[in-house]
């Protein structure tokens, strides 16, 4: 029987790569999106055209009612939820002293509270089944911090802490919770970086290149597999050696 995955922020970048890879490996995929309407519709159409079992749902991860409706829709369409990939997020570069309270709150609400909403809503269906996996997409900046990205780093560090604590709590229910901490990945989030900044980041990476969204998705596919059933509470770095 095919397994079902909800992927938040699946219209672009890492989320899109996950949707494409998991669909190709036989998963029933619920593509969540919020602002990237056209990109989400195009992805949905392209995967359907290949004969994959996919569904589309617009929901803001900051809104618990919207997330609960998305989970209910997924259960209606596919019958069960086996995997949640918490990928939706935003990034922003700003000096800490220039951060507004609204910018701080939006970052926390999207990148951390959104993980809370999605995870808690999905767990209500996983716990009775004593089965399920949750994969959170954090960042190396959640591990070591990034100058001019304090709010982003704080939110992603929160995701890492949530992952470790929740893994202990739901482990007895046979639910695995893990975290991927990508390094510098070539996605739309790199658009604001100058060529000089990109060169400097590559020089700091032992493999001397940026990662790809597909490489992060491949790690997620492994963590979702039966081969990873004894792995929980871990932070897996897909970072080319940037953080060791």
How would you describe this structure to a colleague?
With 244 residues, the protein is of the alpha/beta class. It has one domain (4-238): NAD(P)-binding Rossmann-like Domain (Rossmann fold, 3-Layer(aba) Sandwich), CATH 3.40.50. The chain is 46% helix and 15% strand. The chain has eight helices and seven strands. α4 links the parallel β4 and β5. The protein is globular.
Strand and helix order: EHEHEHEHEHHEHHE
Oligomer: single chain
User: Overall 3D geometry?
Assistant: globular
Mean pLDDT: 97
Main sheet: strands, sense, barrel = 7 strands, parallel
Strand adjacency order, main sheet? 3-2-1-4-5-6-7
N- and C-termini, Cα separation? 39 Å
The CATH architecture classification is 3-Layer(aba) Sandwich
Tell me the name of the CATH homologous superfamily.
NAD(P)-binding Rossmann-like Domain
User: What is the fold named in CATH at topology level?
Assistant: Rossmann fold
- Counted beta strands: 7
Instruction: Supply the CATH class.
Output: Alpha Beta
Q: Proportion of β residues? A: 15-25%
Radius of gyration: 17 Å
């Amino acid at each position: 029987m095919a397994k079902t995955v909800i992927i938040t922020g699946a219209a672009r970048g890492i989320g899109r790569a996950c949707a494409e890879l998991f669909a190709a490996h036989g998963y029933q995929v619920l593509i969540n999106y919020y602002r990237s309407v056209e990109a989400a519709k195009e992805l949905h159409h392209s995967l359907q055209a290949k004969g994959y079992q996919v569904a589309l749902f617009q929901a803001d991860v900051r809104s618990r009612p919207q997330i609960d409706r998305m989970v209910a829709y997924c259960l209606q369409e596919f019958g069960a939820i086996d995997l949640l990939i918490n990928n939706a997020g935003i990034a922003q570069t700003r000096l800490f002293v220039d951060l507004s309270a609204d910018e701080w709150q939006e970052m926390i609400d999207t990148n951390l509270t959104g993980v809370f909403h999605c995870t808690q809503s999905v767990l209500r269906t996983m716990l009775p089944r004593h089965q399920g996996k949750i994969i959170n997409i954090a960042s190396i900046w959640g591990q070591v911090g990034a100058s001019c990205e304090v709010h982003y780093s704080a939110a992603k560090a929160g995701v890492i802490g949530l992952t470790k604590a929740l893994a202990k709590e739901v482990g007895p229910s046979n639910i695995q919770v893990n975290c991927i901490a990508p390094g510098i990945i070539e996605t739309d989030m790199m658009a604001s970086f100058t060529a000089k900044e990109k060169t400097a980041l590559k020089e700091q990476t032992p493999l001397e290149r940026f990662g790809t969204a597909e490489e992060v998705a491949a790690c997620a596919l492994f963590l979702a597999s039966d081969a990873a059933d004894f792995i929980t509470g871990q932070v897996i770095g897909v970072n080319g050696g940037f953080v060791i």
